[in-house]
Amino acid sequence: MRSHAAIAAHVRGLVRHDAGELESAVRSLREVPRPPALASALEDLGRIRLDEGDTAAAVEAFDQALALDSAYGAAWDAARVRSRLRRLGVRRRLVASAGPHTGWSALTRAERQVADLVAEGRTNREIAEQLFVSPHTVNAHVRRIFEKLQVRSRVELVRTVGRE
Predict the structure, then answer these.
(1) What mean pLDDT comes out for the span 129-138?
(2) What's the whole-model pTM score?
(3) Residue 10's pLDDT is what?
(4) In sequence order, which residues have a C-beta less than 8 Å from that of residue 107 and are 6 or more positions away?
(5) Which of 4, 33, 88, 105 is most deeply buried (CB count within 10 A of its CB)?
(6) Phi/psi of residue 98, nearest 5 degrees
(7) Burial call 17-56: b when 16+ CB within 10 Å, e when fewer
């Protein structure tokens, strides 16, 4: 339930425009395995720090959010944070890895998590609820997983996950 308290602190920070609440949310979210939620809280903390005139603290929060978004495969979020940094005169290049394009090792952490939940027999809607993302996001992950693992059905995916 720590994640619930952290999310509540995040919401209070947004509603009250309170950096202290957002810092509390960030501290709590560092202790639970929810990188997207942590990245979101960091980005919101950066926005509030910027509104307060503390550009250095804003850049630091945005940098941390960008690192998380990039590591977790959240390309849209990473692009938005990079745009925020650019408006502050800060350029961050993300170097694409020369890693594999197919196979289990080509999956991002988010895709692996979705693949594991599919292998447990969960529906896209159930996965979306558990991961706090939209069913469309889960569907996109599943499509990329199918492409990378070169499978055509959930049954084939379950077999592949079982082998890994």
Answers:
(1) 92
(2) 0.60
(3) 94
(4) 115, 145, 148, 149
(5) 88
(6) -95, 30
(7) eebebbbbbbebbeebebbbbbbbbbbbbbbbbbeeeeee
